[in-house]
Automatic annotation (TrEMBL):
Identification of the protein by name: VOC family protein
Hydrolase found in the keyword field: no
Keywords for the protein's UniProt record, in alphabetical order: Metal-binding
Residue ranges of every copy of the VOC domain listed in the record: 5-126
Organism, as annotated: Jeotgalibaca porci
UniProt cross-references to InterPro entries, sorted A to Z: Fosfomycin_Res_Enzymes, Glyas_Bleomycin-R_OHBP_Dase, Glyas_Fos-R_dOase_dom, VOC_core, YwkD-like_dom
Signal peptide: none
Entry-linked NCBIfam families: PRK11478.1 (NF008551)
Length: 126
């Protein structure tokens, strides 16, 4: 196979500071680098997730995303965790609402969903 791993996922935020706080303070993702691109009036924040990255962008007046998870395009972003219950407790202690924990019928592993400040569906999966 010539594809080895996911290098990064790009997210466009409607409120850069609010999303930066969510991903760095709530989810505790380390910042790799942050750049302001004056020619685009845009920030680009690179965050570490294991061996992958999230690129968090800001743009002036970005269009809204379809809010149904079944819309064409990226459905959700999933994070692996060794303990979904502990991760949910940590998120809920920080004021983040999570769906009830469920069992994946195919892997028999626990999972749940929560949302980022723009309503992007995020999943936790063991």
């Amino acid at each position: 196979m010539f594809l080895e791993k996911i290098h990064h996922v790009a997210i466009i935020a409607s409120d850069y500071e609010k999303s930066k706080h969510f991903y760095t303070e709530i989810l505790e993702l380390p910042i790799i680098r942050e750049n302001y691109r004056a020619d685009r009036d845009s920030y680009k924040l690179d965050l570490q997730v294991g061996t992958s990255e999230i690129e968090l962008f800001s743009f002036p007046n970005p269009p809204e995303r379809p809010n149904t998870p079944e819309a064409v395009g990226l459905r959700h972003l999933c994070f692996y965790t060794e303990d979904v219950e502990a991760a949910v407790e940590k998120l809920e202690a920080k004021g983040i609402e999570c769906e009830p924990i469920r069992m994946d019928d195919y892997t028999n592993k626990k999972f749940t969903f929560f949302k980022d400040p723009d309503g992007l569906p995020l999943e936790l999966h063991e």
